[in-house]
Amino acid sequence: GKWRVFQPQAGANGTDTLTFQASGPGGASGVATVTLYYDDPNPCPPGLNYCGGAPNSVGAGATMGYTGSTSILANDLVLTCNNLPPSQFGLFFLGQGQTQNPVGDGFMCIASNHVRFGALQIDAGGLATMAVDLFNLPGSNQILAGETWNHQFWYRDPTASPSTFNLSDGVEVTFWP
Known about the structure:
Layout: E1 14-20, E2 23-24, E3 27-28, E4 32-38, E5 48-50, E6 63-67, E7 78-82, E8 89-95, E9 98-103, E10 106-110, E11 115-116, E12 120-121, E13 128-131, E14 148-156, E15 165-167, E16 170-174
Antiparallel strand pairs: 1-4, 2-3, 5-16, 6-7, 7-13, 8-11, 8-12, 8-14, 9-10, 14-15, 14-16
């Protein structure tokens, strides 16, 4: 065919170099070289927490995280938030800008382009999780390779004062193909 797909063996590392030349009725092309690099499958840095979460009714404040990868094609990102009031309701949201403005009993860490997901119930251990389908975000939003998005969790905290709601810290995540 006119193209080739390379699949490295599991655990491959280092590099391979391929040299090729195309030929056709008009003659041969120049020689070209392609170098394949086998290393970290996730070229983006790990998530970075920022904009500290304010204390809540169960302790020092809620903390964002994630499991899975930040690969758009793998589409296996699961947002997590812990240190939450058990069995309350909350929601994950994301956006591209960062800020730290007082809201409720905590801080809004995302400045712009909010994408909000539906409400969910925090489990009895104070953990909220949500799988994110990167191909079906709310509205017409999409995440492109190389973009950095910030994630946060809003939650009810009725025994705290005075607002009865709070927000987690933020986590910054850069996506790759």
